[in-house]
Write a structure and sequence with these properties.
- It is built from three helices and no strands.
- It has one domain (about 10-75).
- It has helices spanning about 10-25, 25-55, 55-75.
- It is elongated, with a radius of gyration of 20 Å.
- The chain is mainly α.
- Helix content is about 80%, strand content about 0%.
């Protein structure tokens, strides 16, 4: 495991401490969870971009249209 020192404005550090306390976590565990979420979002975007380069725009638009219709059908019921 590594140790990382970061500099934050005092108000940001205090808000993070409050958030950790509210969630019943240590500040270390909170930062681990937030980092994991950020990395997962980055990985998902990277995969999406890689697939988009190889993809078929027409097929992608058709899928989005189908999803829109499903959302509209769900909202109607």
């Amino acid at each position: 495991m590594s140790t990382l020192t970061i500099r934050l404005p005092d108000d940001t550090a205090q808000r993070l401490k409050n958030l950790a306390q509210t969630r019943g976590l240590s500040i270390n565990k909170l930062m681990e969870e937030l980092s994991t979420q950020a990395i997962a979002a980055f990985d998902a975007e990277t995969r999406f971009r890689a697939l988009a380069v190889r993809g078929d725009a027409g097929q992608a638009l058709a899928i989005l249209d189908r999803l829109d219709r499903q959302d509209q059908d769900a909202a109607a019921h």
